[in-house]
Amino acid sequence: MDHGSLAVVSPPAIYGSELLTWVLIGLLLYWIAVIGLRNGGYLPDYIGTQGPILTFHTKRGRMLLDRLARPKRFWRAWSNFGVGIALVVMLSMFAVLIRVAMVALSSPQSASSPARQPHNVLVIPGVNDFLPLSATPGIVFGLLVGLVVHEGGHGLLCRVEDIDIDSMGVAMLAFLPIGAFVEPDHESSKSASRGGQTRMFAAGVTNNFAITLVAFALLFGPVVGAIGVAPGAAVGGVAPDSPAADAGIEPNDRITAINGTAVEGNDDLATRLEAVDSEQVAVELNGERTVPVDRSLLVSTAMENGPTGLSVGDKIRAVDGRTVATESGFYDAVGDSERVTLTIEPADDAADDRIEREVTVGAAVSVAADGPLEREAGPTDETMVITRFDGERIQNYGDLAALLEDSEPDQRVAVAGYVGDERETYTVTLDEHPRENSGFLGIQPTPGMSGVAVNDIGVQLYPADEYLGLLGGDGETRFGPITESFLGKIGVALMLPVIGVSGAMPFNFAGFTGGVQNFYEAQGMLGAFGDGSVFLLANLLFWTGWINVQLGFFNCIPAFPLDGGHILRTSTEAIVSRLPVDATRGMVRTVTTAIGVTMLVSFVLLLFGPQLLG
């Protein structure tokens, strides 16, 4: 019987607020130093200042741009294509940002989400909770590539449209390249056609999107194809005060054997543990050392205000008076009983006293509106614990999911369960599942047993195989059709650094770095270069693709001084000039200012709206 996955809560995340404070203090000291150098006349002519930012100017490279710009017809066609993409992205960004801001205001509870914290808007490893310091080389490389191709595109189209260039350069914040620039000659730019100006402003984001496609094509193809999952169960997190923590097991270890029997992968670990009846097991780590682990049944995840009343860190010592120390022993002790009495050692009880609590053992679900189950049971906001489905005993959601997968539309099934302490039985006619070839019950499930996951060693497994599959490698993924297309893979890859926040995955993915490279190994022809070289190449491609698409989208925001703001201005001028009115600059300015202010207000409300409104 499938008893669900081994899942526990990893140690609390260390957020970047304290580090952000030190970063800001460092920037303040740096700014004071810049002011002192500027006022003392120690900065050379080619270095300018914009607040704490140093701008390095050069006139070199203009002759190279002139040579590259010679196939003008090609570059104009390329940029016209980019203008179309930029306009679509601009409209989408405008609509999405307003929509997300409205949702944020209507859901104040989302303000506490880690993804909504202001310091997580900054793409700074170590400050942003989702970007570890180990990702810094890939992020800096991707940013440099993005800046070069972006500003290079502007410079190239300047010469294609016969716009002179005063200077080019980069903007540095301390040692970090945060921008690049091309300064067109003001008079030459004004004399260019409106279409020429629009193509010039769109060229940067066009190149960013092109680099994104190239980087991800290389990553999803030959590079990820040269990476395989190393044998063993990947330890992503270790619960505090758990048997694993007491035994010295750490995140990024691989459990390669249990009592001398090899563990091939994550799915194999539960089987190997269930095969051992004793309360102590010998756990081999990374194929190198073996540690003894004294098992005890730990509550590793628990839904808030769940039907069991259990909390993370509680230990289950007995079921109906029968001592249990393993997950398999727990389910054996439960058997066919739908209600059992648990002996619990609370995590927050310093006296180590034990308490008894009667709980329902089954699959915790919310009844979806207008679904088959609601049509029989009626609407309810309470959690239902399903204990039997079509005559089969349900001990956790894994049992229910397996039966639903084998069901068919229009199949009539008996569903029994508890709402609170009351047992109810319904006969339900299943609908057709909207995404799968199976029956549909109309529920929103919580994984585990009655909204609780238990684990007898206390490790949280890292889905190394699934992440490899999401990147186009040899691995299985639960996202199905989404990742069957190239653009679908890109969409998922862009979400990987924050995917853990949504609950769709237990961890975020920030590349093959930060210790997770222990879960993988190089293979095939590229494997001859060694694990380090293959992982480095994969990280550079991943972050180059990720950063460039972010640069492209950000610069398409229709607000000054971004490229989207300039494209909005030239596009508005083109539209206004065709209206049967006397077009003025004031009319254009009114439109662009209104849109820019709307974007700014939406962004501020997105970050701070729920807090400001209480």
From TrEMBL:
GO CC list: cytoplasm; endomembrane system; membrane
GO biological process, one term: membrane protein intracellular domain proteolysis
Transmembrane segments: 19-37, 77-98, 130-149, 486-505, 525-543, 587-608
Membrane topology category: Multi-pass membrane protein
CDD domains noted in UniProt: S2P-M50_PDZ_Arch (cd06159)
Main location: membrane
PDZ domain segment(s): 225-265
Gene Ontology molecular function: any one: metalloendopeptidase activity
Keywords attached to this entry: Membrane, Transmembrane, Transmembrane helix
Top-level taxon in the UniProt lineage: Archaea
Annotated localization: Endomembrane system
Pfam family, one: PDZ_6
Entry protein name: Peptidase M50
